[in-house]
Amino acid sequence: MSTTPAESVSAQSDPAIVVKGLTKIYNGKKVVNAVDMSVPKGAIYGFIGPNGSGKTTTIRMMCALLTPDGGEGHTLGYDIHKDARAIKENVGYMTQKFSLYGDLTIRENLDFMARMYRVKNRKKVVDETLRTLGLEGRGKQLAGTLSGGWKQRLALAACMQHKPALLLLDEPTAGVDPKARRDFWDEIRQLSKQGVTVLVSTHYMDEAVQCDYIAYIAYGKKLIDGPAAEIPHQVGLTTWRVSGPDLIQLEDELRADPRVEQVARFGAQLHVSSTDSAGLDAVVAEKSGENDARKWEKKEAELEEVFIYLMATAADNFGVNGGPSA
Ligand SMILES: Nc1ncnc2c1ncn2[C@@H]1O[C@H](COP(=O)(O)OP(=O)(O)OP(=O)(O)O)[C@@H](O)[C@H]1O
Protein backbone atom coordinates (compact mmCIF):
# COMPACT_ATOMS: atom_id res chain seq x y z
CA MET A 1 0.00 0.00 0.00
CA SER A 2 1.28 3.47 -0.80
CA THR A 3 2.05 6.08 1.82
CA THR A 4 -0.39 8.96 2.12
CA PRO A 5 0.89 12.52 2.40
CA ALA A 6 -0.96 12.91 5.70
CA GLU A 7 1.11 10.12 7.20
CA SER A 8 4.22 11.75 5.83
CA VAL A 9 3.42 15.28 6.99
CA SER A 10 2.58 14.08 10.47
CA ALA A 11 6.28 13.40 11.01
CA GLN A 12 7.78 16.84 10.50
CA SER A 13 11.28 15.44 10.19
CA ASP A 14 10.36 13.37 7.13
CA PRO A 15 12.29 14.60 4.12
CA ALA A 16 10.44 16.13 1.16
CA ILE A 17 12.27 13.67 -1.08
CA VAL A 18 14.02 10.49 -0.11
CA VAL A 19 15.39 8.05 -2.70
CA LYS A 20 17.58 4.98 -2.32
CA GLY A 21 19.51 3.18 -5.05
CA LEU A 22 17.80 5.21 -7.78
CA THR A 23 18.95 3.84 -11.14
CA LYS A 24 18.14 4.50 -14.80
CA ILE A 25 19.60 2.54 -17.68
CA TYR A 26 19.70 3.76 -21.29
CA ASN A 27 21.19 1.56 -23.98
CA GLY A 28 22.79 -0.71 -21.38
CA LYS A 29 24.45 2.20 -19.58
CA LYS A 30 23.59 3.32 -16.06
CA VAL A 31 23.09 7.04 -16.59
CA VAL A 32 21.85 7.29 -12.99
CA ASN A 33 23.67 4.78 -10.85
CA ALA A 34 22.35 3.83 -7.38
CA VAL A 35 21.75 7.38 -6.20
CA ASP A 36 20.70 7.91 -2.57
CA MET A 37 19.43 11.35 -1.71
CA SER A 38 17.44 12.99 1.04
CA VAL A 39 16.06 16.50 0.61
CA PRO A 40 14.95 18.04 3.94
CA LYS A 41 11.62 19.83 4.02
CA GLY A 42 11.91 23.58 3.53
CA ALA A 43 15.49 23.42 2.23
CA ILE A 44 16.97 24.92 -0.90
CA TYR A 45 18.88 21.92 -2.21
CA GLY A 46 21.41 22.44 -4.99
CA PHE A 47 22.05 19.62 -7.43
CA ILE A 48 25.28 20.17 -9.33
CA GLY A 49 27.26 18.20 -11.87
CA PRO A 50 28.70 18.42 -15.39
CA ASN A 51 26.61 18.19 -18.56
CA GLY A 52 25.22 14.72 -19.06
CA SER A 53 25.94 13.59 -15.49
CA GLY A 54 22.32 12.54 -14.87
CA LYS A 55 20.71 15.50 -13.09
CA THR A 56 17.68 15.82 -15.38
CA THR A 57 17.09 12.06 -15.38
CA THR A 58 17.28 11.96 -11.56
CA ILE A 59 14.88 14.88 -11.17
CA ARG A 60 12.43 13.35 -13.63
CA MET A 61 12.39 10.10 -11.66
CA MET A 62 11.82 12.04 -8.43
CA CYS A 63 8.76 13.74 -9.90
CA ALA A 64 7.47 10.50 -11.43
CA LEU A 65 7.83 11.57 -15.05
CA LEU A 66 10.24 8.68 -15.60
CA THR A 67 10.07 5.16 -14.19
CA PRO A 68 13.30 4.08 -12.47
CA ASP A 69 14.93 0.80 -13.50
CA GLY A 70 16.07 0.32 -9.92
CA GLY A 71 15.72 1.81 -6.49
CA GLU A 72 12.87 3.25 -4.51
CA GLY A 73 11.76 6.47 -2.96
CA HIS A 74 9.10 8.87 -1.82
CA THR A 75 8.38 12.41 -2.90
CA LEU A 76 6.18 14.39 -0.51
CA GLY A 77 5.32 11.08 1.10
CA TYR A 78 4.14 9.51 -2.17
CA ASP A 79 5.78 6.39 -3.58
CA ILE A 80 7.63 7.24 -6.81
CA HIS A 81 6.65 3.86 -8.34
CA LYS A 82 3.00 3.74 -7.32
CA ASP A 83 1.77 7.30 -6.87
CA ALA A 84 2.92 9.02 -10.07
CA ARG A 85 -0.30 10.95 -10.49
CA ALA A 86 -0.36 12.30 -6.94
CA ILE A 87 3.28 13.39 -7.23
CA LYS A 88 2.67 15.20 -10.53
CA GLU A 89 -0.28 17.04 -8.99
CA ASN A 90 1.59 18.13 -5.89
CA VAL A 91 4.97 19.14 -7.28
CA GLY A 92 5.95 22.17 -9.36
CA TYR A 93 8.43 21.21 -12.11
CA MET A 94 10.26 23.67 -14.28
CA THR A 95 12.53 22.49 -17.07
CA GLN A 96 15.74 24.13 -18.24
CA LYS A 97 14.33 25.38 -21.54
CA PHE A 98 11.43 27.84 -21.55
CA SER A 99 8.64 25.33 -21.14
CA LEU A 100 5.65 27.50 -22.07
CA TYR A 101 4.28 28.25 -25.52
CA GLY A 102 5.81 31.26 -27.26
CA ASP A 103 2.87 31.59 -29.64
CA LEU A 104 0.27 31.65 -26.86
CA THR A 105 -0.36 34.79 -24.83
CA ILE A 106 0.88 35.19 -21.27
CA ARG A 107 -2.65 34.63 -19.94
CA GLU A 108 -3.24 31.60 -22.18
CA ASN A 109 -0.02 30.03 -20.92
CA LEU A 110 -0.95 30.57 -17.28
CA ASP A 111 -4.44 29.23 -17.95
CA PHE A 112 -3.06 26.16 -19.73
CA MET A 113 -0.72 25.34 -16.85
CA ALA A 114 -3.51 25.93 -14.31
CA ARG A 115 -5.64 23.43 -16.27
CA MET A 116 -2.80 20.88 -16.31
CA TYR A 117 -2.47 21.13 -12.55
CA ARG A 118 -6.30 20.99 -12.13
CA VAL A 119 -6.38 24.35 -10.34
CA LYS A 120 -9.82 25.33 -9.01
CA ASN A 121 -11.15 28.87 -9.69
CA ARG A 122 -8.77 29.10 -12.62
CA LYS A 123 -9.66 32.60 -13.78
CA LYS A 124 -9.21 34.02 -10.28
CA VAL A 125 -5.89 32.23 -9.82
CA VAL A 126 -4.57 33.36 -13.23
CA ASP A 127 -5.64 36.97 -12.48
CA GLU A 128 -3.82 36.75 -9.18
CA THR A 129 -0.67 35.36 -10.85
CA LEU A 130 -0.69 38.17 -13.41
CA ARG A 131 -1.05 40.70 -10.59
CA THR A 132 1.77 39.17 -8.55
CA LEU A 133 4.02 39.25 -11.59
CA GLY A 134 3.08 42.88 -12.28
CA LEU A 135 1.81 41.81 -15.73
CA GLU A 136 -1.90 42.71 -15.32
CA GLY A 137 -1.96 44.86 -18.44
CA ARG A 138 0.05 42.41 -20.52
CA GLY A 139 -2.05 39.24 -20.39
CA LYS A 140 -2.65 39.40 -24.16
CA GLN A 141 1.03 39.72 -25.07
CA LEU A 142 2.58 36.67 -26.73
CA ALA A 143 4.85 34.88 -24.24
CA GLY A 144 7.49 34.47 -26.95
CA THR A 145 8.06 38.24 -27.00
CA LEU A 146 9.20 38.37 -23.35
CA SER A 147 12.88 38.68 -22.41
CA GLY A 148 14.70 35.54 -21.20
CA GLY A 149 14.45 36.63 -17.56
CA TRP A 150 10.72 37.36 -17.80
CA LYS A 151 10.07 34.06 -19.53
CA GLN A 152 11.66 32.25 -16.60
CA ARG A 153 9.67 34.29 -14.06
CA LEU A 154 6.49 33.47 -15.98
CA ALA A 155 7.37 29.77 -16.12
CA LEU A 156 8.07 29.75 -12.38
CA ALA A 157 4.81 31.54 -11.57
CA ALA A 158 2.93 29.13 -13.87
CA CYS A 159 4.16 26.05 -12.04
CA MET A 160 3.38 27.61 -8.63
CA GLN A 161 -0.30 28.27 -9.33
CA HIS A 162 -1.42 25.03 -7.66
CA LYS A 163 0.65 26.00 -4.58
CA PRO A 164 2.96 22.96 -4.53
CA ALA A 165 4.96 22.21 -1.39
CA LEU A 166 7.92 21.16 -3.54
CA LEU A 167 9.54 22.83 -6.53
CA LEU A 168 11.89 20.93 -8.82
CA LEU A 169 13.87 23.35 -10.96
CA ASP A 170 16.09 21.92 -13.69
CA GLU A 171 18.67 24.56 -14.60
CA PRO A 172 15.98 27.23 -14.42
CA THR A 173 18.28 30.11 -15.29
CA ALA A 174 20.37 28.56 -18.09
CA GLY A 175 21.22 31.34 -20.52
CA VAL A 176 19.59 34.07 -18.42
CA ASP A 177 21.63 37.22 -17.67
CA PRO A 178 23.10 37.70 -14.16
CA LYS A 179 20.65 40.45 -13.09
CA ALA A 180 17.62 38.35 -14.12
CA ARG A 181 19.22 35.40 -12.35
CA ARG A 182 19.50 37.38 -9.11
CA ASP A 183 15.84 38.46 -9.39
CA PHE A 184 14.83 34.86 -10.02
CA TRP A 185 16.72 33.78 -6.91
CA ASP A 186 15.05 36.48 -4.81
CA GLU A 187 11.78 34.79 -5.72
CA ILE A 188 13.15 31.35 -4.84
CA ARG A 189 14.23 32.68 -1.41
CA GLN A 190 10.75 34.13 -0.88
CA LEU A 191 9.16 30.79 -1.72
CA SER A 192 11.59 29.04 0.59
CA LYS A 193 10.66 31.44 3.40
CA GLN A 194 7.04 30.44 2.85
CA GLY A 195 8.03 26.82 3.49
CA VAL A 196 8.35 25.54 -0.09
CA THR A 197 11.11 22.96 -0.55
CA VAL A 198 13.26 23.70 -3.61
CA LEU A 199 15.51 21.24 -5.45
CA VAL A 200 17.45 23.11 -8.11
CA SER A 201 20.04 21.85 -10.57
CA THR A 202 22.58 24.43 -11.61
CA HIS A 203 25.84 25.09 -13.38
CA TYR A 204 26.31 28.49 -11.81
CA MET A 205 28.53 29.08 -8.81
CA ASP A 206 26.55 32.12 -7.66
CA GLU A 207 23.50 29.86 -7.46
CA ALA A 208 25.27 26.96 -5.74
CA VAL A 209 26.40 29.25 -2.91
CA GLN A 210 22.77 30.22 -2.21
CA CYS A 211 21.79 26.64 -1.43
CA ASP A 212 21.42 25.20 2.07
CA TYR A 213 22.44 21.72 0.90
CA ILE A 214 24.44 20.48 -2.07
CA ALA A 215 24.66 17.17 -3.90
CA TYR A 216 27.31 16.63 -6.55
CA ILE A 217 26.82 14.02 -9.27
CA ALA A 218 29.22 12.85 -12.01
CA TYR A 219 28.81 9.93 -14.45
CA GLY A 220 25.46 9.13 -12.85
CA LYS A 221 26.92 8.66 -9.37
CA LYS A 222 26.36 10.95 -6.45
CA LEU A 223 29.83 11.65 -5.13
CA ILE A 224 29.19 14.19 -2.38
CA ASP A 225 26.26 15.62 -0.48
CA GLY A 226 25.51 17.47 2.72
CA PRO A 227 24.94 20.91 4.20
CA ALA A 228 26.65 23.48 1.95
CA ALA A 229 28.97 24.57 4.77
CA GLU A 230 30.34 21.03 5.09
CA ILE A 231 31.05 20.43 1.40
CA PRO A 232 34.53 22.07 1.32
CA HIS A 233 35.65 19.85 4.20
CA GLN A 234 34.32 16.73 2.43
CA VAL A 235 36.25 17.59 -0.74
CA GLY A 236 39.43 18.19 1.28
CA LEU A 237 40.69 21.09 -0.79
CA THR A 238 43.41 23.35 0.65
CA THR A 239 43.51 26.92 -0.62
CA TRP A 240 46.09 29.70 -0.48
CA ARG A 241 45.15 33.22 -1.51
CA VAL A 242 47.83 35.47 -2.90
CA SER A 243 47.85 39.16 -3.82
CA GLY A 244 50.60 41.54 -4.90
CA PRO A 245 52.78 42.15 -7.98
CA ASP A 246 53.22 40.01 -11.14
CA LEU A 247 50.18 37.83 -10.60
CA ILE A 248 49.82 37.04 -14.31
CA GLN A 249 53.26 35.47 -14.47
CA LEU A 250 52.75 33.74 -11.12
CA GLU A 251 49.46 32.31 -12.39
CA ASP A 252 51.24 30.72 -15.39
CA GLU A 253 53.93 29.22 -13.15
CA LEU A 254 51.41 27.83 -10.68
CA ARG A 255 49.28 26.29 -13.43
CA ALA A 256 52.36 24.46 -14.74
CA ASP A 257 53.14 22.93 -11.34
CA PRO A 258 51.68 19.42 -10.91
CA ARG A 259 51.26 19.96 -7.15
CA VAL A 260 48.73 22.70 -7.91
CA GLU A 261 45.28 21.52 -9.03
CA GLN A 262 43.50 24.83 -9.46
CA VAL A 263 44.27 28.51 -9.86
CA ALA A 264 41.27 30.83 -9.93
CA ARG A 265 41.30 34.61 -10.07
CA PHE A 266 39.01 36.43 -7.65
CA GLY A 267 39.44 40.17 -8.27
CA ALA A 268 43.01 41.16 -7.32
CA GLN A 269 43.75 37.77 -5.75
CA LEU A 270 44.66 34.34 -6.98
CA HIS A 271 43.11 31.43 -5.12
CA VAL A 272 45.47 28.48 -5.42
CA SER A 273 44.07 25.10 -4.44
CA SER A 274 44.94 21.43 -4.25
CA THR A 275 43.89 18.26 -2.47
CA ASP A 276 47.64 17.63 -1.98
CA SER A 277 47.95 19.91 1.03
CA ALA A 278 51.65 19.20 1.75
CA GLY A 279 52.57 19.62 -1.93
CA LEU A 280 50.74 22.93 -2.11
CA ASP A 281 52.37 24.21 1.07
CA ALA A 282 55.77 23.35 -0.46
CA VAL A 283 54.92 25.30 -3.63
CA VAL A 284 53.91 28.30 -1.55
CA ALA A 285 57.10 28.10 0.52
CA GLU A 286 59.15 28.19 -2.71
CA LYS A 287 57.18 31.00 -4.33
CA SER A 288 56.92 33.19 -1.25
CA GLY A 289 60.71 32.94 -0.81
CA GLU A 290 61.19 34.38 -4.32
CA ASN A 291 59.04 37.50 -3.90
CA ASP A 292 58.43 39.00 -0.47
CA ALA A 293 56.18 41.71 -1.88
CA ARG A 294 53.35 39.25 -2.32
CA LYS A 295 50.97 38.42 0.48
CA TRP A 296 50.10 34.74 0.93
CA GLU A 297 47.32 33.61 3.20
CA LYS A 298 46.14 30.07 3.89
CA LYS A 299 42.39 29.74 4.29
CA GLU A 300 40.02 26.85 4.39
CA ALA A 301 38.59 26.42 0.91
CA GLU A 302 35.12 27.89 0.51
CA LEU A 303 32.24 26.68 -1.59
CA GLU A 304 33.28 28.94 -4.50
CA GLU A 305 36.67 27.26 -4.89
CA VAL A 306 35.19 23.81 -4.33
CA PHE A 307 32.51 24.41 -6.96
CA ILE A 308 35.11 25.44 -9.56
CA TYR A 309 37.21 22.43 -8.62
CA LEU A 310 34.35 19.93 -8.90
CA MET A 311 33.09 21.31 -12.20
CA ALA A 312 36.58 21.43 -13.70
CA THR A 313 37.74 17.99 -12.61
CA ALA A 314 34.91 16.11 -14.33
CA ALA A 315 34.63 16.95 -18.01
CA ASP A 316 31.24 16.77 -19.70
CA ASN A 317 29.79 13.34 -19.03
CA PHE A 318 28.30 12.74 -22.47
CA GLY A 319 29.77 10.37 -25.04
CA VAL A 320 30.62 6.73 -25.53
CA ASN A 321 33.49 6.82 -23.10
CA GLY A 322 31.33 8.60 -20.59
CA GLY A 323 33.17 7.53 -17.47
CA PRO A 324 32.88 4.80 -14.94
CA SER A 325 29.12 4.33 -14.71
CA ALA A 326 28.54 1.32 -16.95
N1 LIG B 1 15.86 9.36 -23.39
C1 LIG B 1 17.17 9.08 -23.39
N2 LIG B 1 17.65 8.08 -24.14
C2 LIG B 1 18.97 7.76 -24.12
N3 LIG B 1 19.90 8.41 -23.39
C3 LIG B 1 19.48 9.43 -22.62
C4 LIG B 1 18.10 9.81 -22.57
N4 LIG B 1 17.97 10.85 -21.70
C5 LIG B 1 19.23 11.12 -21.24
N5 LIG B 1 20.12 10.27 -21.78
C6 LIG B 1 21.56 10.22 -21.50
O1 LIG B 1 21.70 10.09 -20.10
C7 LIG B 1 22.81 10.83 -19.62
C8 LIG B 1 22.35 11.78 -18.53
O2 LIG B 1 21.53 12.80 -19.11
P1 LIG B 1 20.85 13.94 -18.25
O3 LIG B 1 20.08 14.81 -19.19
O4 LIG B 1 20.11 13.33 -17.11
O5 LIG B 1 22.12 14.73 -17.69
P2 LIG B 1 22.20 16.21 -17.06
O6 LIG B 1 23.17 16.12 -15.93
O7 LIG B 1 20.83 16.69 -16.76
O8 LIG B 1 22.86 17.03 -18.25
P3 LIG B 1 22.55 18.54 -18.68
O9 LIG B 1 23.14 19.38 -17.61
O10 LIG B 1 23.28 18.66 -19.96
O11 LIG B 1 21.07 18.64 -18.82
C9 LIG B 1 23.41 11.52 -20.83
O12 LIG B 1 24.49 10.77 -21.31
C10 LIG B 1 22.27 11.52 -21.83
O13 LIG B 1 22.76 11.50 -23.15
From TrEMBL:
Gene Ontology MF annotations: ATP binding
Record domain ABC transporter: where: 17-244
Keywords assigned: ATP-binding, Nucleotide-binding
CDD domains from the UniProt entry: ABC_DR_subfamily_A
Cross-referenced SUPFAM superfamilies: P-loop containing nucleoside triphosphate hydrolases
InterPro entries the record matches: AAA+_ATPase, ABC_transporter-like_ATP-bd, ABC_transporter-like_CS, P-loop_NTPase
Name the UniProt record assigns to this protein: ABC transporter ATP-binding protein
Organism this protein belongs to: Thioclava electrotropha
Higher taxonomy: Bacteria, Pseudomonadati, Pseudomonadota, Alphaproteobacteria, Rhodobacterales
